[in-house]
Amino acid sequence: MTVRWPRLLTPTHLSQIIRKQKNPLTALQMFKEAKYKYPNYCHNGPVYATLIGILGNAGKICEMKEVIDWMKEDSCECKDSVFVNAIKTYARAGLVNEAVSLFKSIPQFNCVHRTESFNTLLQILINESKLEAAHRLFLENSYGWEVKYRIRSLNLLMDALCQRSRSDLALPIFLEMNYQGCYPSRESYRILMKGLCEDGRLNEATHLLYSMFWRISQKGSGEDIVIYRTLLYALCDNGQVEMAVAILGKILRKGLKAPKRCFAHIVLNRCSAGEDIEDTKRLINEALIRGGIPSLASYKSMAIDLYNEGKISEANKVLYTMQERGFRPTNLIYETKVAALCRGGNVDAAVKVIEEEMEGNCVPNVRAYNILLKGLCNEGKSVIAVDYLKKMAKKLGCVADKETYGILINGLCRESRYLEASQVLQEMLIKSYWPCVDTYNILIRGLCSMSRQYEAVLWLEEMVSQGMKPELSVWNSLVASVCSNMADIEVCSQTCN
Hints:
Elements: H1 11-19, H2 24-37, H3 45-57, H4 61-74, H5 80-92, H6 96-104, H7 115-127, H8 131-141, H9 151-163, H10 167-176, H11 186-198, H12 202-215, H13 225-237, H14 241-255, H15 264-273, H16 277-291, H17 296-308, H18 312-324, H19 331-343, H20 347-357, H21 366-378, H22 382-394, H23 402-414, H24 418-430, H25 437-449, H26 453-465, H27 472-496
Helix pairs in contact: 1-2, 1-3, 3-4, 3-5, 5-6, 5-7, 6-7, 7-8, 7-9, 9-10, 9-11, 10-11, 11-12, 11-13, 12-13, 13-14, 13-16, 14-15, 14-16, 15-16, 17-18, 17-19, 19-20, 19-21, 20-21, 21-22, 21-23, 23-24, 23-25, 25-26, 25-27
């Protein structure tokens, strides 16, 4: 691709030029040439960020590392997001130690804050089950002014401990928050409440609930009902229904600020009389939803939580009540519902949500469609999923993105529909979305298995033009396919003779 260089080059213009290159190594070459072609030109932070992102997404680790070193030498002002992308790239490549080294070297760069990169690396270490390294990282970096908003990092540590059934260790972290100069958020309470209940530490969970009443529930927020429900359900499962009912009364009065005229007392009597635990839980849900002052936040929190747990019928009732009271469901509620239906194997119902239920309430966005397309492909209905590309194009503000095309291509390849996958890939390239190396490898091998060597070679050329290296198995498939065809030709020739 021939580049027409301008008379005067700016970093913004150079960023636009290198973004258009499908080969990341070509983009790197242009980045290098810029200083030679324009002696007075200097790179800035955003153009470095653009190139580091391109090289990182293409898996060019060595080249990305080299550019990061240049950025340090130039001492240009850069944002924390540059290091976030680089750290994620190292993590995807399994180079966690490199990610840690990069974070420790950030003080050598002209970067003022590093809160996001700190939280990103902390999350990666936790995901890799390197809790000691995560704890050490926190102790070394959480007290400086460069890292703000320590509440998120503390929540990450608590969540990691709770997932490993160590809420006994998460509780001191929660209590330590005051000394860290931050206050527990709603997410802090949610994480710890869930951990304590799952570990059977119901006394501590009850005390935690009471602390919510004067900490974050003073105004009766509807979003808190999900946290309340966690404790009430745990008490019911432990056979402490009367205790759950008593605490529910306090929640309605002190937590949700329920008006006295509310019918909650009737529901409470029904709860205490109920012998079936599941029926009691359903009544608790009704009391939490209808007991307080109706709000979008309360309906939204309860519906999303129930859909995430796979309790679709109960969540649907909340959704119906919500609409009945004049609240319009948000995109996030419908996205969660579509995801829950797809997980349960009910893709047809998920299709109806997109095409019928969302009509008049909100316009389906690309996230909702991506969830649906993934569900269709998982059910072996990738051909139907492809038809949604045209439907998405007709929706205002709903444009298929790189993830959309990736879902469709992977789904078609799983069903051995390699020709259809080729067509989708062609459309993806027209939209300037570059697929990963695995997509090309799978597609080329599939085309070879169908004896479509011509298309396979075309995609091989496209792959190489983007600076990607095919796997050895791709070459083996291509050679085997060609040799097989040559053998067929020889047999035909002998038959004719």
